[in-house]
Design brief:
By secondary structure, the protein is of the alpha/beta class. The chain is built from two helices and three strands, in the order βαββα. The two termini are about 25 Å apart.
Amino acid sequence: MIKVVYVEDEIGDQTSRRVQQRLHIPDDFQCDIIYPKNDLADFPMEYDAYLLDLDLGVKHDDQQVNYHGSTLAAEIRLRRLK
């Protein structure tokens, strides 16, 4: 099974639900949606593919994250190369 993660700061809106539904294929594709983490070091790396909202803003607990999706993409690339 291929595991995809969608990092989104507005989980539950129509767009994020639609993305998850379209990317979920039982026994083939699994799509998880998660909020951005406060610390980039806490980001899970067990996924096969990453879909990132480039305009990350407020997390679910009303805390502002201090990075953008492009920064998260660069961090993922660096950590995957190790």
